[in-house]
Amino acid sequence: MMWRRNTRLLFLVCLAFATSLPAAAQRTKIVAYTAIENEQLPVFKAAIESAVSDVEIEWVRDSTGVITARFLAEKAQPRADILLSLAVSSLIQFKSAGLLDPYTPKGWETLKPQFKDASPPASWFGHDAFLGAICFNTVEGGKIGVASPSSWRELTVSKLEGKVVMSHPGSSGTGYLMVAGWLQMMGEAEGWAFMDALHRNIAVYTHSGSAPCVQAARGERVVGISFDMRGAREKSAGAPIDVIVPAEGTGWDMEATAVVKGAKNAALARKVADWAASEDANRLYAKYYAIVAHQAVTSLPANYPPDAERRMARIDFEKMANERDRIIAEWVRRYETKAAAK
Known about the structure:
The protein has about 350 residues and is of the alpha/beta class.
């Protein structure tokens, strides 16, 4: 009789333990393709899994161009469930190819208009903007007698030959937003002429959008054409750089989210999309970006370039997406000789 009681007690204890297992043991893996910085991956994973208790995020991370090419190559059998924090120019391209699941997340009405897909059916939404910027090493510039520039064209002076670095538009979203921005701001003929002159001063085209600013911050280059927040972070860490958004304006893009059409776990992917549009998520974005989508969230990081938001060029994102292949093909024809080895 005692043995039976003990057995029953053990059964009840085991049952109680099993039903109180951590939620992580009952989670479903959601494959998220992304281009966010490596150091942000664990932060965003923890935030998503805290907010969506039945999801475990499995990241597939690379530069924008690499992720874009991979997703398109897999279109017949998509592996991703959600595209999270990827350049909107890529998402527009995917939408045109019929690869996105039309979905309007909870909280859609709280997002700024410029961060919403305005072409029905709405299939993506943005959450933060990143702008092209110059990271100028004042120490190294002083050694060659070059002052901090205020215009893009000042980067073409002969003293900067071999001392400028920027990212490759085929593999980096930052690189592409710069090239597309120059072409839209200056016009095709003037834009390519400017890039021809700039090319003479380029040391190498990297395959990372942050690498040019990092190299300038270390004094390896005088100028790194990169993005706004990387410059602010490097300067805040003590690098002797000026972070400049030129007076004539700059190209920009936004990180955006979309659910993949035919996703294996579409219902859970939509839950993650709801989180991505939330105020809590936007407050997390604001730790890394100055300009975010939610109307109630503002951010002004230390050492952020003044007047940056006012200098964002008027960008046609549909054109930016639809002309991507043509623009990159022409860029490769002209400038690929200085691309970094992959």
